[in-house]
Amino acid sequence: MPRVGLNQQTVVREAARLADEVGLPQLTLAALASRLGVALPSLYKHVRGADALAQKLAALATAELATELTSAAVGRSGTDALRAMADAYRDYALRHPGRYPATQRVPDPADPEHVEAGERAVGAIFAVLRGYGLTGDDAVDATRALRSALHGFVTLEAAGGFGLPRDVDRSYHQLVASMDISFRSWPGTGG
Amino acid sequence: MPRVGLNQQTVVREAARLADEVGLPQLTLAALASRLGVALPSLYKHVRGADALAQKLAALATAELATELTSAAVGRSGTDALRAMADAYRDYALRHPGRYPATQRVPDPADPEHVEAGERAVGAIFAVLRGYGLTGDDAVDATRALRSALHGFVTLEAAGGFGLPRDVDRSYHQLVASMDISFRSWPGTGG
DNA sequence: CAACGATAGCTAAGTGCCTTAGCTTTAAGG
DNA sequence: CCTTAAAGCTAAGGCACTTAGCTATCGTTG
Question: In this structure, how many other beta carbons lie within 10 angstroms of the beta carbon of residue B178?
């Protein structure tokens, strides 16, 4: 029995690939072990268990998403930045149907990389909203609004929740355009 | 062994109650059977299996949500209707943490009541948007935007995704206010 | 180069959940 | 009263997760 030479990173990375292929709910330790060419209990040498794997996968996916959001916004501002970031967000969700839902897990305080990834993702959104002059409580509200809109849209889209034939790309761009208008005259009370 | 006298409706209703108490993922046939005072396989006399139960629960919850949305909007229009409906939406999600995620399941074409419930829910939103003068493709886009925003918000809220101390109620109202503004000058190309 | 120790990976075994098969008994109706 | 549909049961198998304990590999060290 030659050793395969796994470590936590290879296991989590393969879990991410598998999740994208078969869907997050179908990501099972059994399937992952078979994919990696080891017996199921061997995975426990690298990951504490199924829940811990899900958490590490969340950290990985959140970090990836944060990086894509950041790099989409770099060098742009205002409407331009918002559109680029929104497109990057949806692209990631569509390209990674298994990883994306994993990003919804709340960062584990015991995993610094996970926490940092979450902060980076929210920070990227915050930065774009700064370009609209939004700060303080207004920025918090606007960040929540933008996250809600983007997350809600891609979730409903992925779930097949949009039944009508109307072009989904176009609906998304309309949504982003409407958020752009909202941010220009954010209805905050100012505090 | 006295008969308990179950039928599909009592089973599904109890499943809904249980889901709200313990969370949708923890709604298990074993827990439900024990709650109803029967052995687990007895449930199969009333429901085809775990997946069919989830579908019936989705139909129930979707119908309830549709009813609440409709009754919130009745007798109102414009901003007033939008606010009332948005509040009803979030109230339902918060009061029914197990039922609400069940509503995200795509209606089963083989279950007319489920399909009808889904149409009723979307129809309620459509009706409110008609009050903003939105019709045709614009109404489709706006409906998707509103669903995305509301669903995204309550999902993130329920998942504990809003870490900062800023009042969540207020953020929600800001989101709804911004959607209201957007709908007044919907950025559609006109079709 | 040989012995050692850490550990990757294995088999075995137990739990919980879903599902099917087949039996028993209730209770409704002729 | 007797029949019968079906409500509910026990038994048993499958799949997923987890733990315990063993084996063998490989890097390190004497």
Answer: 25
